[in-house]
Structures are given as C-alpha cells and as structure tokens.
Amino acid sequence: MKTSVVSNEQSNGSIWAVALRSSLLLIVVCGIVYPLVSTGLAQLIFPSQANGSMVKDSSGNVVGSELIGQSFKDPSFFQGRVSSIDNDAAGSGSNNYAPSNPELLKRVQESVAQWKKENPEVPFSQVPVDLITNSGSGLDPHISPASALAQVSRISALRTISQDQLKALVTKYTEGRDLGVFGEERVNVLKLNLALTELSK
C-alpha cells in the first residue's frame, strides 16, 4: 500500500515537472525567440513597412503614415475620403447605415453641400463617388485619380499653379493596380499634398 502511494506521488511529481518544463520552453520559444526572429527579419527585409510605412517631408520630419488617411481642412490641399471617425487611427470603422437611414442621407447631403461650396465650377454630376462616401475603415489614405483631378481647378485658383502642372502631379503620384491586376488605380493624398507643398514653394 505504501509503495503504491509513493509511486503515485512520484508519478504526480513527474507530471508537474514535465508540465513546468513544457511551459518554460513554450514561453521562451513563443514569447522571446519567435518575436525576436520575426521582428528582426521584418526590419531586415521590409524596414519601411515594419516601422509603420512612415512618410517624411522634405526636411526629414515624419508627417504621417502612407497607410492612414489624414484630414486636410484647407481647401488649397487635395481632400481625401469622408471619415466618420475623423481619421482617428486609435480605432477604425464607420457607421454601418443602411441606404434608407436618415443619418446617412444627412451626412451625404452635407458632403455634397460642402463640395458645391468649394468647387462651384465643377458640375456635381462629374464628382467621383469616393469623394462624398465614407470608406469602410474610416482611415482610407487613397482617392481615385478622377477624384484628384476633380479638385484641380479649385487648387489651381487658390495656389495660382497651372492646371496642367497639377494634372501632371496627379499623374506622377497615381499608383497602379497591385501586380497589375488587383485593386484599382489610386492616389495617396498625403504624398500628393506633400508634393503640392513643394511645388508651391
């Protein structure tokens, strides 16, 4: 009987020892080794992306990330997508309103009114839909090339830069489809506005 009790105690002790060793091994491998290796490889192979795809101005100062949209209130800059969270990178998302929701109708009407006020010379029928609709994340940093071109006349008048120069700038900063087939052509608003600032000097 005593032998059986001692044997059970030894067996339990052995199980606990194995569990402890396994836990320590997993902590070291998954909590230390793997993060260090993956972070090191990311810094080596994709340093820009690993550090947040930060965008710098001509002075080398970080002004934002190319992955997160910003609000440009000054009408002399290119405007991005509507954001129900005001491009707050602390969280993403948008109000999931149905097309019949009066709150959605109100927001769209406000966007349309603002557009007409700032761009009276551009017929509303020519306004690309992405300029008056919210992005799903609320953080979309891109607009379509057509949306950028629709703002050229306003910016040209406010900055006394020729429309041809601005159109050339939009073309220069238009990004193609990923791998030539995925997604749509797009323009990063932050990069475009940085280039616009340099052009205005």
TrEMBL record:
Q: GO molecular function: any one?
A: ATP binding
Where are its TM segments located? 24-46
Q: Which UniProt keywords apply?
A: ATP-binding, Cell membrane, Ion transport, Membrane, Nucleotide-binding, Potassium, Potassium transport, Transmembrane, Transmembrane helix, Transport
Task: Please give, as recorded in its UniProt entry, the membrane topology of this protein.
Answer: Single-pass membrane protein
InterPro entries with a match to the protein in the record? KdpC
Task: Specify the superkingdom.
Answer: Bacteria
What cellular-component terms does GO give this entry?
plasma membrane
Family stated for the protein in its record: Belongs to the KdpC family.
Q: What does this protein do?
A: Part of the high-affinity ATP-driven potassium transport (or Kdp) system, which catalyzes the hydrolysis of ATP coupled with the electrogenic transport of potassium into the cytoplasm. This subunit acts as a catalytic chaperone that increases the ATP-binding affinity of the ATP-hydrolyzing subunit KdpB by the formation of a transient KdpB/KdpC/ATP ternary complex.
Query: What is this protein's record name?
Result: Potassium-transporting ATPase KdpC subunit
Q: Which organism is it from?
A: Paenibacillus pini JCM 16418
Q: Gene encoding it?
A: kdpC
